């Protein structure tokens, strides 16, 4: 696969995962815990796709196929790492909102 296409896949899937995670926090904040967790599952799927693309690059380099370091590749890696961090934090927020909503009796899952 073309290097630029692999990089764009990483950026695209990571960006989708980040957005889904942030949206999941918003759902949890409004008591929609089930929707929030569904968003995290979708984010995990997108991150798995981004990781597949990243793995292609890593395996190629392990075979001796040196990749030229580019700003676009660094940008893609930055997107992936941020998406992973936000997904992890979203899980924590969702757990917290679930507990708060239980105490307040305000879970309105749809």
UniProtKB/TrEMBL annotation:
CDD domains noted in UniProt: PTS_IIA_lac
Transmembrane segment boundaries: none
Annotated InterPro entries: PTS_IIA_lac/cel
Phosphohistidine modifications at: 75
PANTHER family xrefs: PTS SYSTEM N,N'-DIACETYLCHITOBIOSE-SPECIFIC EIIA COMPONENT (PTHR34382)
Protein name, per record: PTS lactose/cellobiose transporter subunit IIA
